[in-house]
């Protein structure tokens, strides 16, 4: 136990399971007119997910308009544009439908629909002005169609602006309702299933080694880690394996609960610095690329925690913290993501010092949750060891 005093505050109502999307038509809604936020891609319409949501809202007596410009790494300009639409159309709640980018955007839009000025006025870190969002946020409903971020049940949103990719979290950004239906996740391609699943895995693992972990967060972490080790390779191999999809969906939501009760460590700072400059790099892929070097750097600091994570993965006793690193490597190989090359995204070794600086300046507060302080030399070594 790392903290003698701890708390849990997760005010989101969670509905999780196959067919859960139907509950949107009967649950009490937080308003009468929704702004439904989806990505600029085609999948929400192609697979009928948007129609399911719009039909359920209609059955429940609510109107809706759709905002469909969100990018894989969502940007401030779209947050501001959608918030203006939200106010103009007098929407009184926001629904994020899709992956983490859509739900994070929905949160930020809900914030800016209730607060004046520019979104970056409220951001802490980088060129943000750290202003207090006294207006709160509109109520948010989160409906993930991917399993990875856990943003459906935590208060965090990540938006990019001018090569600054920064997370922001305040209590009003907890969704009031999260509907997690693994049947909406069967269409996710195998490589994206892997990237997203490892994002969830690292939320859980980082939250477990964080120096502010609690007995509550540790329960969520270990359960998530175990589910993902068992079922993520199955979901990657067969996207229609609904049992595996359900395990991975639950694990992702549990990792969001880790986010709400512990915190990510600096692995996320390091990855955000890369994808802030190279937006084509999927967040999960970037995390995978740096993960072995990153976690290896803390092996001797909290060895018992690495052994506990290894035990959660296999169900067998571990006497060596390096077991976790070996199991993580084998899990990545089983999911076909062990050969990710940062160079394929245009990243060069000359970029690495720039990433070190950006990680410190934009998401520097996450470094305070590491098991021990990392120097700039340590960070550069992690990047260098990961580069290929």
Structural notes for this entry:
The longest helix has 23 residues, at 215-237. The model has no long low-confidence stretch (mean pLDDT 97). This protein folds into 2 domains: 13-184, Rossmann fold (3-Layer(aba) Sandwich); 190-386, Dehydroquinate synthase-like - alpha domain (Dehydroquinate synthase-like, alpha domain). The protein is of the alpha/beta class and 388 residues long. The strands form 2 sheets. It has a 6-stranded parallel sheet with strand order 1-8-5-4-2-3, sandwiched between helices. Helix 3 crosses helix 4, helix 5 (190-209) runs antiparallel to helix 6 and helix 5 packs parallel to helix 7 (242-261). It has 13 helices and 8 strands. It has helices spanning 43-46, 49-59, 76-88, 100-112, 190-209, 215-237, 242-261, 266-277, 283-296, 303-314, 322-334, 352-363, 376-386; strands at 13-16, 33-39, 63-70, 93-98, 140-144, 156-161, 164-169, 177-180. The chain starts with 12 loop residues before the first strand and ends with a helix. The radius of gyration is 20 Å and the shape is globular.
Order of helices and strands: EEHHEHEHEEEEHHHHHHHHH
Please give the CATH architecture of the largest domain.
Answer: Up-down Bundle
Mean pLDDT reading: 97
CATH topology of the largest domain: the name is Dehydroquinate synthase-like, alpha domain
**Percent of residues in beta strands:** 5-15%
């Amino acid at each position: 136990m790392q903290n003698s005093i701890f708390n849990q505050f997760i005010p989101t109502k969670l509905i999780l399971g196959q067919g859960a999307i139907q509950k949107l038509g009967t649950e009490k809604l937080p308003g009468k007119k929704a702004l439904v936020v989806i990505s600029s891609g085609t999948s929400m319409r192609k697979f009928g997910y948007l129609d399911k949501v719009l039909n359920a809202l209609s059955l429940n007596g609510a109107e809706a308009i759709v905002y469909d410009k969100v990018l894989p790494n969502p940007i401030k300009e779209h947050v501001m544009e959608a918030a203006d639409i939200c106010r103009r159309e007098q929407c009184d709640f926001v629904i994020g439908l899709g992956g983490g980018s859509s739900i994070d955007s929905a949160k930020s839009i809900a914030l800016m629909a209730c607060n004046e000025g520019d979104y970056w006025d409220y951001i802490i870190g980088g060129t943000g002005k750290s202003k207090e969002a006294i207006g709160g946020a509109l109520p948010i409903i989160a409906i993930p169609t991917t399993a990875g971020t856990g943003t459906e049940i935590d208060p965090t949103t990540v938006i990019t602006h001018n090569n600054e990719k920064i997370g922001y979290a305040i209590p009003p950004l907890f969704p009031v309702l999260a509907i997690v239906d693994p049947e909406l996740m069967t269409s996710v391609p195998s490589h994206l299933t892997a990237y997203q699943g490892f994002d969830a895995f690292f939320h859980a693992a980082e939250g477990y080694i964080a120096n502010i972990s609690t007995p509550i967060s540790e329960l969520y972490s270990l359960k998530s880690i175990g589910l993902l080790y068992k079922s993520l390779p199955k979901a990657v191999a067969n996207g229609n394996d609904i049992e595996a999809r359900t395990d991975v969906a639950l694990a992702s939501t549990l990792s969001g609960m880790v986010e709400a009760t512990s915190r990510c460590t600096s692995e996320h700072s390091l990855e955000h610095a890369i994808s802030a400059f190279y937006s084509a790099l999927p967040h999960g892929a970037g995390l995978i690329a740096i993960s072995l070097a990153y976690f290896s750097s803390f092996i001797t600091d909290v060895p018992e925690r690495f052994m506990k994570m290894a035990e959660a993965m296999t169900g067998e006793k571990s006497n060596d913290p390096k077991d976790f690193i070996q199991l993580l490597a084998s899990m990545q190989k089983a999911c076909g993501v062990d050969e990710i090359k940062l160079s394929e995204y245009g990243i060069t070794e000359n970029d690495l010092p720039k990433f070190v600086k950006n990680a410190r300046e934009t998401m520097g507060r996450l470094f305070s949750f590491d098991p021990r302080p990392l120097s700039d030399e340590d960070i550069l070594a992690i990047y260098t060891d990961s580069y290929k």
